[in-house]
Amino acid sequence: MEILETVTFDDAFAKRLQRSIAFTESIMTKMVTGELTSPEITEAMLLWSRFANASLVKTKNGARGFFVTYLTSDSTLADNPSPEVITALESSPDIVAELLVKNLAMSAAMGLNHRRNGKEDMAQGSDRVRCSVGAAPRTRSANLIKQLNMPSLFDIAQQLRQSALTGVGNYQEFLQRWRYDSEQKQVIHQALSEILDE
Fold it and tell me: What is the pLDDT of residues 83-132, one digit of tens each?
């Protein structure tokens, strides 16, 4: 199943997402090299950026671009999120909570899909979102979920887990839009259970 063939984005959406990805890459590079102070990291993520034309975590496109870059990066920054990243993410629970839970679900389902198709390198990319280097086998997304003081994350995770199990509920449309099959729904359920049942 090739998911990307079934999803289309308008040009404006794609451009905003590309800008937020590029801006996140820039921030992460400066974090790794020590070019940003702690307050500058938070400010970069929260305040209006002329480059990205939006706050990274105050808009859906900004947060999507942030998560796409941050969670899939070869860098270990996402394995041990800084307090500044946590603070910035906590500032926007209405946007961050659902996107982060969906990232956990989608990486679980796509890892399975890639392995089915013999694309181990792509599966490892999905696993990067899921696995923290040198840590317990908790996913990068799950690690963030556990660190954020955001009760709505667990409500959304519970609702998505229920939809994955029953095929109905608040996230039925999400699961249908991405055409997840029963085995993919099972791994989504398992990934969400790991954070909910701890």
Answer: 989 988 998 899 999 999 999 999 989 989 999 999 988 887 777 665 44
Burial label, 193 (beta-carbon count in 10 A; 0-12, 13-18, 19+): middle
- Fill in the amino acid letter for 3: I
What are the CA-CA distances from residue 60 to residues 33, 105, 106, 142, 167 (Å)? 28, 17, 17, 19, 26
Cα dihedral value 120, 167, 178, 60, nearest 10: -110
Half-sphere exposure of 48 (CA within 13 A, CB side): 2
Note the pTM of the prediction, 2 decimals: 0.81
Burial letters for 68-104: b for 16+ Cβ neighbours within 10 Å, e otherwise? Answer: bbbbbbeeebbbebeebbbbbbeebbebbbbbbbbbb
The amino acid sitting at 14 is A
Query: What share of residues in the chain are helix, strand, coil (percent, to 5)?
Result: 70, 0, 30
**How sure is the predictor about 192, in pLDDT bands with cuts at 50, 70 and 90?**
very high
